[in-house]
């Protein structure tokens, strides 16, 4: 593949697609033919006009300045003497507008390919991209990830001349991640005429993907559609939350039967508006919304006796799929769609409870390692855009370097993957030792804080918890995970164990007094990147601070009960939880673990904002960015940052799976080789049933209330074991098989 030349068009095609093609002359009978292809930008490969694959958005998104994936396709059955091999390319992530940059990786689209032919007689031939390839215009007149696409079936391909060979400085590596593919398909279920008179189709589910049309219209007639996740309070089409992303699709019909769908873009939407439509009836049977995502095997399932919680789980699954499109993104619709490291680390354990995400994370973690800076720090999103900019090195975002490899190891037990990323983990912790003015505290950095927490004003982007407290807590957490990883790998971790002890000791001295966090932490500096100064930013006594002190074992054992009590008082006093990215993943866990399981359930069942069921009650089909993205009065949180497809607070499924149903990984025998099974049944749920397909087989736990009793059914795959603890305190060691237990309510 390395001998293939990078080729580009002889003229600048701007935002239009370009086709590179070559006629293939075969000398003899072909035994096997393999096409390897890549691009800077996106590409699709065709032989005689037929797609060589049903995969999408190739070559995928990596740290392009260091590596780009190439894909290999078996094309033996498609190849014939005289066939035309074509690569159609457009801008995608690498070229064009992405995030706040233009052409962040390359200033023009280019491609490279190698066709390997093995003849029946054993001889071989290689056909490589070079200047003998011809460039043509494409019927894709415009394509851009955020802004959408224009395809014109009346535009014949025009020759642009010989391809031009260029140099692209990056390594070409075989595909490492999952393929992105089309998955679920949705028919529109209603046509709405809005108060403004707009024609809007509703697909009933918020997705990332696109709409396919089959249509026979007059030559030159156009379909123009806009996308939206929600309607506004008057029932009109609403695109304000896309910010600058246009998500606009234009198709020009050929006069014959056409099938249209985007080739180089995707949209996040539930509704489309028909801005222009040919003079033919709107045929629901010929219009489909198609979800696209990385092709991860579904491994986990959950159902219970409460329909609202079932809908919540549905929404979590959908936001997960919609945001795992080659890279774990924050959202799939606005002018962002970035691999935010904080979002990825908060949610990766939850994802692994429902999907096999090993390969997906293997690829992304390789990119995190490549984007790690020389000094060991880690950027806020990967792949990084703006290498030359001063990016914030934020606690909980950069800590993904330690959290994600550890979580993926726990879920799949793959020591090789952990070993591969151990150096990244270590470099991150080593960076932290020098990040602040003193070694055992992380003070004064640029952070995102307790992002989206509610305790510094309802509409603030960030909560009141001291950045320094969060940063030092994460410093301890990452060091702890590094120690655990090192021990698994047989490293001598004495020095890092000592470091961990010192961080915890300094944390207690600096942020706590008499076993409790300080009301006000010392002020070093308050920077919340890109946001106005917070009114009240240095608090130690917040729900989030108490949660992470308990979750990361930062207090002395003797103070644990008092801290938990204080947390409960604060929740009760406020009436709800105020936690953001930092506290939310752990709040229900620390409540249950410290004797407040009833309160954990009350928070789960709460229906007013802020709560998980508030969005369910307001018709959500995915997880919202804010607890109240859609306000009680039907208004919106803000235009500036209001995604309706942001998985972070879907992290609640972690508690539902490992505490409510009660299937918990054992760190010393990962991948569910040994599990801790400790259900926490609740009568309001009636029953709960969760399963996970592990490498050993399916592990499933069910409980059900009936006739004053709680019935349990537990199935363990052969070769695995579990320690069962029932609410009565009854314990038993179990091994592969199905077990039934009954206890009184
Ligand atoms: C994203 C978040 C992300 C954050 C950083 C936002 O714009 O959508 O999910 O983590 O920026 O604070």
Layout of helices and strands:
Elements: E1 6-8, E2 18-24, E3 30-40, E4 42-47, E5 50-51, E6 55-56, E7 67-74, E8 83-90, E9 97-98, E10 101-102, E11 110-119, E12 124-128, E13 134-137, E14 140-144, E15 148-152, E16 159-162, E17 164-166, E18 171-174, E19 180-186, E20 190-193, E21 199-216, E22 222-228, E23 230-231, E24 237-238, E25 248-252, E26 257-260, E27 267-276, E28 287-294, E29 300-304, H1 307-323, E30 324-325, E31 327-328, H2 341-352, H3 358-371, H4 400-412, H5 415-435, H6 467-488, H7 494-511, E32 512-513, E33 516-517, H8 543-551, H9 560-574, H10 584-593, H11 597-605, H12 612-617, H13 652-661, E34 663-665, E35 674-677, E36 687-694, E37 697-706, E38 709-725, E39 731-744
Parallel strand pairs: 7-18, 15-25, 35-38
Antiparallel strand pairs: 1-17, 2-8, 2-13, 3-7, 3-11, 4-5, 4-8, 6-19, 9-10, 11-12, 13-16, 14-15, 19-28, 20-21, 21-26, 21-27, 21-28, 22-25, 22-27, 23-24, 29-36, 30-31, 32-33, 34-35, 36-37, 37-38, 38-39
The structure holds beta-D-glucopyranose.
The site of beta-D-glucopyranose has 9 residues, from helix 2.
Fold and architecture overview:
It is a single chain. The strands form nine sheets. Strands 6, 14, 15, 19, 20, 21, 22, 25, 26, 27 and 28 form an eleven-stranded mixed β-sheet that branches. The model has no long low-confidence stretch (mean pLDDT 96). The chain folds into four domains: 6-145 and 157-174, Jelly Rolls, CATH 2.60.120.260; 181-294, Jelly Rolls (Sandwich); 300-661, Glycosyltransferase (Alpha/alpha barrel), CATH 1.50.10; 663-744, Maltose phosphorylase, domain 3 (Sandwich), CATH 2.60.420. It is built from 13 helices and 39 strands. The N and C termini lie far apart (65 Å). It is of the alpha+beta class and 745 residues long. It is globular, with a radius of gyration of 27 Å. The structure holds beta-D-glucopyranose. Beta-D-glucopyranose binds at residues 330-331, 336, 340, 342-343, 448, 451, 641.
């Amino acid at each position: 593949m390395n001998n293939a030349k990078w080729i580009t068009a002889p003229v600048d095609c701007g935002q239009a697609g370009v086709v590179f093609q070559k006629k293939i002359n075969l000398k003899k009978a072909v035994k096997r033919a393999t096409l390897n292809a890549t691009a800077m930008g996106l590409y699709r490969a065709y032989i005689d006009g037929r797609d060589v694959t049903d995969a999408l958005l190739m070559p995928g998104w990596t740290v392009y300045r260091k590596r780009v994936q190439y894909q290999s396709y078996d094309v033996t059955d498609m190849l014939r003497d005289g066939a035309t091999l074509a690569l159609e390319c457009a801008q995608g992530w690498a070229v064009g507008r992405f995030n706040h940059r233009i052409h962040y990786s390359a200033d023009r689209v280019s491609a490279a390919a190698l066709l390997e032919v093995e003849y029946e007689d054993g001889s071989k031939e290689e056909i490589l991209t070079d200047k003998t390839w011809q460039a043509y215009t494409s019927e894709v007149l415009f394509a851009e990830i955020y802004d959408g696409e224009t395809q014109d079936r009346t535009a014949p391909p025009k020759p642009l001349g010989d391809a031009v060979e260029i140099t692209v400085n990056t390594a070409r590596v075989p595909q490492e991640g999952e393929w992105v593919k089309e998955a679920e398909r949705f028919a529109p279920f209603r046509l709405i005429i809005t108060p403004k008179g707009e024609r809007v189709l509703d697909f009933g589910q918020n997705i990332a993907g696109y709409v396919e049309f089959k249509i026979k219209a007059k030559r030159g007639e156009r379909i123009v559609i806009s996308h939206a996740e929600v309607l506004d309070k008057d029932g009109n089409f609403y695109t304000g939350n896309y910010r600058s992303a246009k998500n606009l699709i234009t198709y020009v019909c050929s006069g014959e039967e056409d099938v249209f769908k985007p080739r180089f873009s995707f949209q996040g939407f539930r509704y489309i508006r028909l801005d222009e439509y040919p003079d033919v009836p709107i045929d629901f049977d010929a219009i489909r919304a198609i979800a696209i995502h990385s092709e991860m095997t579904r491994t986990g399932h959950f159902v219970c006796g409460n329909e609202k919680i079932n809908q919540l789980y549905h929404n979590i699954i959908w936001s997960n799929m919609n945001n795992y499109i080659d890279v774990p993104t924050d959202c799939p619709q606005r002018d962002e769609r970035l691999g935010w490291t904080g979002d990825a680390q908060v949610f990766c354990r939850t994802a692994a409870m429902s999907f096999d995400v090993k390969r997906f994370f293997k690829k992304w973690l390789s990119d995190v390692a490549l984007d790690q800076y020389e000094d060991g720090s880690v950027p806020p999103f990967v792949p990084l855009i703006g290498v030359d900019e001063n990016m914030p090195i934020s606690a909980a975002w950069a800590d993904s370097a330690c959290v994600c490899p550890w979580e993926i190891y726990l879920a799949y037990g793959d020591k090789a993957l952990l070993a591969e990323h151990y150096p990244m983990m270590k470099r991150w912790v080593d960076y932290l030792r020098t990040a602040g003015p003193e070694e055992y505290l992380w003070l004064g950095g640029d952070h995102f804080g307790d992002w989206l927490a509610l305790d510094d004003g309802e509409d603030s982007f960030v909560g009141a918890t001291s950045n320094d407290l969060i940063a030092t807590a994460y410093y301890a957490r990452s060091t702890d995970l590094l120690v655990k990883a090192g021990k698994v790998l047989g490293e001598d971790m004495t020095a890092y164990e000592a470091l961990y002890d010192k961080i915890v000791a300094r944390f207690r001295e600096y942020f706590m007094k008499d076993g409790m966090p300080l009301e006000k932490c010392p002020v070093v500096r308050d920077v919340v990147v890109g946001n106005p100064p917070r009114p009240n930013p240095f608090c130690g006594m917040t729900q989030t601070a108490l949660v992470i002190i308990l979750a990361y074992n930062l207090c002395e054992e003797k103070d644990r009960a008092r801290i938990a009590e204080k947390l409960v008082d604060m929740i009760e006093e406020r009436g709800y939880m105020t936690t953001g990215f930092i506290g939310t993943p752990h709040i229900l866990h620390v409540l249950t673990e410290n004797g407040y399981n009833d309160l954990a359930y009350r928070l789960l069942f709460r229906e007013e904002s802020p709560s998980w069921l508030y969005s369910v009650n307001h018709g959500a089909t995915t997880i919202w960015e804010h607890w109240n993205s859609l306000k009680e009065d039907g208004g919106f949180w803000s235009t500036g940052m209001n995604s309706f497809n942001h998985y972070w607070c879907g992290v609640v499924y972690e508690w539902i799976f490992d505490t409510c149903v009660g299937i918990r990984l054992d760190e010393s025998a990962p991948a569910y080789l040994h599990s801790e099974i400790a259900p926490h049944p609740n009568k309001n749920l009636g029953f709960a049933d969760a399963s996970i397909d592990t490498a050993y087989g399916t592990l499933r736990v069910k409980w059900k209330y009936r006739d004053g009793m709680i019935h349990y059914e537990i199935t363990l795959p052969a070769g695995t074991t579990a320690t069962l603890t029932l609410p009565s305190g009854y314990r038993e060691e179990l091994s592969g098989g199905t077990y039934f237990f009954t206890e009184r309510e």
